């Protein structure tokens, strides 16, 4: 899922070079907010599934819903669950909000069954109970006006300007607020059928393949969706409104039949949408070839427009507020990371969101000009380092706003994957991802952070304990300070690290540096394993400039300073960088003095004038802000002599 406020951050970054800080999502009531520990576990299970003892593995759900947004949110349902009982029991349990009214519960032969409700728990009884291993089914007929307390709005009745809409969004804890289900991160529904009865003028979008779409009478249309892949409960969804529908096709590598991408959009946006959704086709091909084939390839992918302020990756049918490039990439990425393999606890949510955010970055890396991807990565890094604390591991999964934290679960999660890729190398990283997606216990199932570590260790042959411990649990990032000086042919580099948060006393990071001068450059990669370290190198050229992390691989905030003593000794003043790509250059003086300065442009016109105000100094930073690119002549007066220099602004 991705909330629009998160999107604003990235879009703002691309367009304006700045961003709006992600706001926090709607929070749960105070009574659900608590800290780590056993208490949290209890609270979590209460919130997650009302502590229901289900007693079975869920095999199949057939959900029939009578929904008519023209009349309002009130709806009726008939949900059948087919299951395998785990051990002998007299009851089977369901999660269902106490706000919904149950009319009757029926067994396999249509016989009525008794049930008991308590809060959001519901237990169904059968006269002789159930035996371990027994397969059976239970149907629940119910109705009501669903509540939307907490979360992101589980069942929403709204209007999109040109018509009323009902849409659902159950992640993380909301399915029980609109249907009787087994809410779980351990057990997926193996197979699903969804029947939606609605007004003849409306259409219903949902999971899987549309197998029936017929007008039953003057007032009623039936649409049946059939899904034959395992699906976690929170990804079951419907959206009903006066949709305009069209299908586009993605040609996937090694498949004769193209994959349909079925779009349900608000009629007023049809023209724009048809143009915009085309961009998802190359993304599908990219993920399909980079990772494993599209996980639901026998069915479809699709988008359904809704009015919640973002996107939600409902399996095979992402719900979208609009069809912006990044939002489409993010929700598509979830079909692999989140849907095919689902986070095994909410504390592992970054396995959904960090991956979806990183795969969006990969879309930029592979499908767009190289510079765009690097700009995004730098922007994401500034977002993460904008605050000294915070871990990818969420401490309080009951605070939904904190759990879906844009800066940490999404952006820091993505950056951790980016660094993991740099650590193990491209081929081991992508192979590790494929092993994780295909793993015996993870494919079409669930995964925890330890599973990702295990597959990455297997693909790379490296021990990644420290890496995962620091970057998953650890808060913050390292502040890095680098000072260099060159004397003769010897370059001395001094390194200092200050962790931003005391949860990590020393970050084990790479320190990549690019030094430049006289038209030459050299890449230096260093892995100091102390807070302070220094190194000496022989250089065959005179260094003017050092860039930390030139290829954007390290999550750190760095400052770099340095001086070439050879240059300073030869001349009373040294100016650099020269040429300068930015708006400033620095004047270094061999002897501290009062410096006055005049800047002339290429045709000899004076454009700036400044002095150090009677203060002796070794160093003056000069701004070229507002001046056009080209050569400038600098006249420097140290009180004794006037010296002339040429500076190029690029
Ligand atoms: Zn997401």
Ligands bound, unique: zinc ion
Strand residue percentage: 35-45%
The percent of residues in helical segments reads: 10-25%
Enumerate the spans where pLDDT stays under 50 for 5 or more consecutive residues: 7-49
CATH architecture of the largest domain: Orthogonal Bundle
Number of domains: 4
Describe the biggest sheet? 7 strands, mixed
The CATH homology group name of the largest domain: Neutral Protease Domain 2
Mean pLDDT: 90
In the CATH hierarchy, what is the class of the largest domain?
Answer: Mainly Alpha
The count of β-strands is 36
Shape: elongated
Instruction: Provide the gyration radius in Å.
Output: 30 Å
Output the strand order for the largest sheet.
Answer: 5-8-3-2-11-14-13
Number of helices: 13
The secondary-structure class comes to alpha+beta
Q: Please give the alpha-carbon distance between the first and last residues.
A: 42 Å
């Amino acid at each position: 899922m991705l909330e629009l406020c998160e999107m604003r951050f990235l879009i703002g970054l691309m367009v304006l070079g700045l961003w709006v800080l992600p706001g926090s999502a709607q929070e749960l009531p105070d009574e659900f907010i608590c800290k780590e520990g056993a208490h949290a576990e209890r609270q979590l299970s209460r919130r997650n599934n009302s502590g229901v003892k289900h007693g079975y593995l869920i095999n199949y759900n057939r959900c029939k819903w009578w929904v008519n947004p023209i009349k309002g949110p009130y709806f009726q349902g008939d949900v059948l669950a087919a299951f395998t009982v785990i051990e002998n029991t007299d009851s089977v349990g369901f999660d269902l909000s106490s706000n919904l009214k149950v009319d009757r519960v029926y067994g396999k032969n249509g016989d009525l069954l008794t049930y008991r409700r308590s809060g959001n728990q519901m237990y169904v009884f059968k006269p002789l109970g159930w035996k371990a291993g027994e397969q059976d089914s239970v149907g629940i007929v119910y109705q009501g006006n669903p509540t939307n307390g907490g979360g992101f709005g589980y069942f929403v009745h709204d209007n999109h300007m040109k018509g009323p809409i009902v849409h659902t969004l159950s992640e993380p804890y909301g399915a029980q607020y609109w249907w009787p289900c087994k809410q779980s991160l351990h057990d997926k529904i193996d197979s699903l059928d969804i029947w939606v009865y609605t007004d003849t003028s409306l259409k219903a979008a949902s999971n899987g393949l549309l197998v029936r779409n017929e007008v039953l009478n003057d007032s009623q249309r039936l649409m049946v969706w059939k899904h034959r892949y395992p699906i976690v409960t929170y990804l079951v969804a419907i959206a009903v409104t006066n949709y305009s529908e069209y299908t586009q096709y993605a040609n996937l590598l090694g498949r004769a039949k193209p994959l349909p991408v079925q779009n349900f959009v608000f009629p007023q946006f049809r023209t724009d949408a048809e143009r915009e959704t085309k961009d998802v086709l190359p993304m599908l091909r990219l993920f399909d070839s980079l990772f494993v084939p599209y996980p639901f390839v026998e069915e479809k992918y699709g988008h359904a427009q809704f009015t919640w302020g973002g996107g939600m990756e409902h399996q095979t049918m992402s719900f979208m507020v609009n069809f912006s490039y990044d939002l489409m990439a993010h929700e598509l990425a979830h079909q692999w990371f989140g849907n095919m393999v689902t986070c095994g606890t909410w504390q592992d949510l970054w396995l959904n969101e960090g991956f979806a955010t990183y795969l969006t970055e990969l879309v930029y890396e592979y499908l767009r000009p190289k510079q765009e991807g690097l700009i995004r990565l730098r922007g994401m890094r500034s977002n993460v380092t904008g605050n000294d604390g915070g871990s990818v591991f969420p401490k309080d999964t009951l605070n939904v706003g904190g759990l879906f934290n844009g800066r940490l679960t999404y952006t820091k999660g993505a950056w951790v994957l980016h660094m993991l890729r740099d650590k193990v190398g491209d081929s081991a990283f992508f192979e590790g991802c494929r092993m994780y997606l295909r793993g015996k216990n993870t494919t079409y199932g669930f995964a925890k952070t330890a599973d990702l570590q295990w597959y990455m260790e297997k693909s790379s042959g490296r021990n990644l304990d420290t890496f995962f411990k620091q970057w998953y649990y650890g808060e913050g990032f390292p502040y890095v300070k680098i000072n260099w000086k060159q004397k003769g042919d010897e370059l001395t580099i001094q390194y200092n690290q200050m962790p931003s948060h005391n949860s990590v006393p020393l970050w084990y990071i790479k320190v990549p540096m690019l030094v430049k001068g006289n038209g030459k450059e050299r890449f230096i990669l260093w892995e100091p394993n102390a807070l302070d370290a220094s190194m000496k190198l022989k250089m065959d050229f005179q260094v003017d400039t050092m860039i930390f992390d030139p290829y954007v691989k390290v999550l750190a905030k760095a400052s770099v300073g340095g001086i070439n003593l050879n240059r300073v000794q030869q001349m009373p003043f040294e100016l650099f960088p020269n040429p300068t790509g930015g708006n400033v250059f620095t004047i270094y003086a061999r002897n501290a003095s009062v410096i006055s300065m005049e800047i002339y442009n290429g045709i000899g016109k004076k454009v700036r004038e400044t002095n150090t105000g009677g203060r002796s100094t070794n160093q003056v930073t000069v701004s070229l802000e507002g001046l056009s690119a080209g050569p400038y002549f600098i006249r420097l007066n140290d009180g004794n002599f006037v010296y002339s220099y040429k500076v190029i602004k690029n």
